[in-house]
């Protein structure tokens, strides 16, 4: 490093230091760092994989591996494993630059035939190492070595998809480029806000590899200059406006200037101090200085043969010079002996120091060898950990994808369960309504059947009571003589004569035979404004009363059906039953019709009207036969009321050995629904 060629020299630099220039070239593609100067070895045994995770042929190109971004102990960012080439001239630097330029990723878009798809960084590193105190060797102290770096960054331009018409890989590259530029602008905005308003917001350098690599420059470890390129075409007005606004923001950001550290403890000019130098200009030699210290010689010119003073003066001057020379020789010998003693002591001290330094050097060499082994072990461990980290990252990506898929599936299942739960609740509500409706319907049906059964049983009991009364009357009659058996015609006439009873119409409303016929009046319902379903069962008997229920615009049915209920709002059931006094009692049961959730109709009963007819002389008794002899024991004869005569007839059947037969004509037996 000390032997420097003439064409590589630079002027106005520190002559007591040596210098070296190193260059490197990287690119940031899809937020990954690649070394453009790396020579990728070809491995015919290890299979290669392309972007589709399929093995490539051995003759295909093997893409370079991405590099990691690391931080040293001084918090400076650097690319681990990046190739650095030492150059001696500008020609070598340009040769290295063009060698990496050929590996840059470019592609054809709708706007640019050779569009750069990545950010490129060309680093020029200048290393200054001072010489030691003797000026012969480089000082082996890392603290005294100074490194300066110049980074030339070529940022890829922002793209709009609707203009570039990018798709596939081009679209992905454009998205990563725009994202890194947006992160750079965000960092600029946060820096400006922190400087203008005194805030301490965290700058998001780690969101992009571009900003993370140059975070030391923005934090005050360097200077930053930005060159903006614009296109004067009118179609690029929006892009130019955004770029100019970004440049305006960057002008307001102030970066602290770094402080240069001085190289301390070294004397300037030490490189040429120990080198032999000749007389320069009018500088006197050492011999001239020594000769000038002797006394001057007198004039040695003898003009007269009898001159006796010149030679004695010359002899005296020479003796003085000889004496002075002898004194100087003695002094020189003394000083040389003393200097020799000092040199001997210095040699002994240097020898002991050399032995001591050699021992320390051996120890240091052992320590260095141990540290090298440790470094190699740590590097292997680091590579293993990096490989594991890469595998874990891939596994994490797979797990995250599975997690997202499972979450989507879980959300779908939850939505499906919610829909099923809603359908279930609606179905439960519908079934509950149907159950309630069916329950009410069957309760009413059971009540109706119980009432019908009670009425039937009452009728049967009443018939039995009448039979017993008739049988008792026949048994209690006196038997004077055996009557002749009448013919069938007379028997029928007699039975018909005995079964004749008054009309079921109450006596209060029986018209005179000679009076004109009375027009029957109909009783108007109180709810004649609505449409009604008039339910009259076929088993009902037609009464001949003057007052008759009449509902206009009613649908008369014998059996209730859904079609009739759907057309009306009101419902009326005509129900007949036998009262306790033997008269027919008509009940008009009214109700409102409602639509159910299941699409049917339900009836809610609200009112009951009772139509009943009575005889004014209901307490009057009639004999059971037209002629009845007096009882010998003085007991009262059997009597029957008018109601019984109006509703019961007795008929003697010929050939019967069990007595007369009975048949109930007033109330026929109701059929079971």
Written description of the protein model:
The chain is α+β, with helices and mostly antiparallel strands and 673 residues long. Among the domains are: 17-252, Kinesin (3-Layer(aba) Sandwich); 311-446; 552-608, Sandwich (Immunoglobulin-like), CATH 2.60.40.4330. The protein is 40% helix and 17% strand. The protein is built from eleven helices and 22 strands. The protein has helices at residues 90-101, 161-164, 169-197, 209-213, 215-221, 237-251, 286-292, 310-476, 488-499, 562-567, 642-647; strands at 17-29, 32-35, 48-49, 55-56, 69-71, 77-79, 85-87, 106-107, 115-116, 119-130, 146-154, 521-524, 532-535, 547-550, 554-557, 570-578, 584-595, 601-612, 621-623, 639-641, 649-651, 661-663. The strands form eight sheets. Strands 1, 2, 7, 10 and 11 form a five-stranded antiparallel beta sheet that branches. A five-stranded mixed beta sheet has the order 15-13-16-17-18. Strands 3-4 form a two-stranded antiparallel ribbon. Strand 8 and strand 9 (115-116) form a beta hairpin. The longest helix has 167 residues, at 310-476. It is rod-shaped, with a radius of gyration of 68 Å. The two termini are 124 Å apart. The model is unreliable at 42-47, 488-528 and 618-669 (pLDDT under 50).
